[in-house]
């Protein structure tokens, strides 16, 4: 491979802001695996956000990328998995598997798609120093005839349209809007763009904690919600605490510690059958193949309010943010029923907008 921009490339990142800023290029924020594709003739490399290769996990995409992308190019985008009219991040994570036979089977059963939203190189040209508006125009031109499972990401210059996308697209599994400065060069691993994500709050039961990597202080609180059968399900973690507060929490939570864990709702967390029928901490990681054994069970008696962006099935998609303790709430009242359900939206309608928005970068 001999390209003007060689792998690995860590993609340009975004910093969170509360409102959609004016005067930028706006795109939906896709919920998948960030991927930078390098193609040089018959050689294709798909790099992850950290620069590690994803190529072997998506053989069906490699074939499509080589069939539809320009012969020599570097494209930034997102690997997504479409299930019906929604994105399915859970199914996408299952695609990361060490066994080649399993990878091939999943490529047939749950094929992935690729949404392109930036062009870093074309032919002999290094486009990273080129302004965003020009890179977008070039991308729209070279992908004008692209077909599924490859897509050109819809884009707009209209902030009002971006606000409508922010409200509507969540129902299809997207989690916000990205705003890109029109004159910005491509800056690998730097937070040059802006992301505007949904934020909601929920009251959750604190049922345990994991220790911090630096020592015996609280690293993250383990959160639970009661389902319709009255079973406490592990739904995510809250980890937004200063170091001093992490130390204080150990003493505050000490009276709730359960050692041994008999009687705890997640006492059977190490049992694979129990993991299959209920959400508990300590499940096998798709990425490492190991279990996290280091969590401290607590009597599920305290409630906190956390902020979250959206749900992935029956759990929080990302780490939640601490808002306040809720001594006025009973743990039993912390159920899934309090969570907002986004209005449904057909993903095909979103991806179909790309052709109509292809001129956004050239204005």
Automatic annotation (TrEMBL):
Pfam families: DNA_ligase_A_C, DNA_ligase_A_M. It catalyses: ATP + (deoxyribonucleotide)n-3'-hydroxyl + 5'-phospho-(deoxyribonucleotide)m = (deoxyribonucleotide)n+m + AMP + diphosphate. SUPFAM superfamilies: DNA ligase/mRNA capping enzyme, catalytic domain, Nucleic acid-binding proteins. Residues 105-227 form the ATP-dependent DNA ligase family profile domain. One of its GO terms (biological process) is DNA repair. Its EC number is 6.5.1.1. This is DNA ligase (ATP). It comes from Streptacidiphilus pinicola. The lineage of its organism: Bacteria, Bacillati, Actinomycetota, Actinomycetes, Kitasatosporales.
């Amino acid at each position: 491979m001999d390209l003007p921009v060689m792998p690995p490339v860590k993609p340009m990142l975004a910093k969170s802001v509360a409102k959609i800023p004016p005067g930028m290029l706006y795109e939906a924020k896709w919920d998948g695996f960030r991927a930078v594709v390098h193609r040089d003739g018959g050689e294709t490399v798909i790099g992850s956000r950290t620069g590690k290769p994803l190529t072997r996990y998506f053989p069906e995409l490699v074939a499509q990328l080589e069939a539809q992308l320009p012969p020599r190019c570097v494209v930034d985008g997102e690997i997504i998995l479409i299930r019906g009219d929604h994105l399915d991040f859970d199914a996408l994570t299952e695609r990361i598997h060490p066994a080649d036979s399993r990878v091939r089977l999943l490529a047939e059963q749950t094929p992935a798609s690729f949404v392109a939203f930036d062009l870093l190189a074309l032919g002999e040209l290094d486009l990273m120093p080129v302004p965003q508006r020009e890179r977008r125009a070039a991308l729209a031109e070279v992908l004008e005839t692209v077909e599924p499972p490859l897509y050109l990401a819809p884009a707009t210059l209209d902030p009002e349209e971006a606000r409508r996308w922010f409200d509507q697209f969540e129902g299809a599994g997207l989690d916000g809007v990205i705003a890109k400065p029109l004159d910005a060069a491509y800056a690998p691993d730097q937070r040059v763009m802006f992301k505007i994500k949904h934020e909601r709050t929920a009251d959750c039961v604190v049922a345990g904690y994991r220790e911090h990597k630096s020592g015996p202080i609280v690293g993250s609180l383990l959160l639970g919600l009661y389902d319709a059968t009255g079973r406490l399900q592990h739904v995510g973690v809250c980890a937004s605490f200063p170091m001093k507060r992490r130390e204080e929490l150990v003493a505050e939570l000490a009276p709730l510690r359960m050692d041994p864990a008999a009687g705890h709702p997640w006492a059977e967390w190490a049992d694979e059958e129990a993991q299959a029928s209920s959400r508990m901490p300590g499940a096998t990681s798709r990425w490492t193949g190991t279990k996290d054994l280091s969590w401290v069970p607590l009597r599920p008696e305290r409630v906190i309010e956390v902020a979250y962006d959206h749900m992935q099935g029956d759990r929080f998609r990302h780490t939640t943010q601490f808002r306040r303790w809720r001594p006025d709430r009973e743990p039993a009242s912390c159920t899934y029923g309090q969570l907002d359900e986004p209005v449904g939206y057909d993903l095909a309608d979103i991806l179909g907008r790309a052709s109509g928005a292809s001129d956004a970068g050239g204005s």
